[in-house]
Amino acid sequence: MEHGESTEDARRTDHERLVSASLATDGEERQSWESEWCRLAYWELTQRVGRQFGVRVRAVDVFGGGGGACGSGRHGLCLDALDQRGDAPQVEQVKKTRAKIGLGVTLSLESDGVWLYNRSQEPVFVSSPALDAAAAKALLVWRVAPGHCLCIFDPSCPPPAVSLPHIGPVDPRSVRISFAKGWGPKYSRRDVTACPCWLEVLLAPPS
After folding, report:
1. Which of 18, 49, 82, 178 could link 195 by a cystine bridge, Cβ 3.0 to 4.6 Å?
2. Is 40 helix (H, G, I), strand (E, B) or coil?
3. Is the pLDDT of residue 16 over 60?
4. How far is CA 46 from the centre of its chain?
5. 176: domain range?
């Protein structure tokens, strides 16, 4: 997939503000990164599913696992293999959205930044402080269509620390990705925590 086709269909859905700091840490210390360049946390609505997933290879897949893909030898985070909180029944909207994830996304650390490739048949929605440098008081949500990609973080131009009114500081190295469902003022889902299936990407602190 060429970078040149990446941002034409990655368009803003509207302004959206993130909650303070990072949800994925859940009180866990962000230390001992060693050779990890990011960590992944998968969420269903307001509940994190499974543990954080440390990434050391330059490209990692996050996929649904339908059709036995979890055993296909792909390197990455297979969502179907995560601990699903025991035998608790899955919310219907979560179940339907998970079934649409399919090949999911690829996150790739490249020379010009961190790129997201949408390999699924549904759009994904992205909010990253790095995509909103020109609008420090509001974080935008971007739509990435199937088959397209978007640079979600440029380490050469890291976003400044931002503190939003009535919210507080926002982690400038935290990226949120929702599968199939968008959020923001024009949606019934005003916050990412209302999305059925979403991913938080915690980028390693600068060395």
Report:
1. 178
2. strand
3. no
4. 14
5. 3-28+35-203
CA distance linking residue 59 with residue 45, whole number of Å: 26
pLDDT above 70: residue 11: no
| Cα→Cα distances 195→70, 95, 140, 192, Å | 23, 12, 16, 5
Say whether pLDDT at 1 is over 60: no
DSSP assignment string, 134-187: T-TTSEEEEEE-TT-EEEEE-TTSPPPPEEETTTEEE-TTEEEEEES---STTS
State the total domains in the chain.
1
Which amino acid does the sequence have at 121? Q
Q: Percentage of the chain with pLDDT > 90?
A: 44
Separation between Cα atoms, residue 56 and residue 34, nearest integer Å: 9
Strand order in the sheet with 149-153: 76-78, 59-63, 105-110, 113-118, 149-153
Taking all residues of the chain, what is their mean pLDDT, rounded to a whole number? 77
Q: Which residues contact 1 (CB under 8 A, 6 or more apart)?
A: 117, 147, 149
Q: Is residue 139 exposed (0-12), middle (13-18) or buried (19+ Cβ within 10 Å)?
A: buried
Q: So what's the pLDDT on residue 13? A: 44
Reduce the DSSP state of residue 8 to 3 states and report it. Answer: coil
Does residue 90 sit in helix, strand or coil? coil
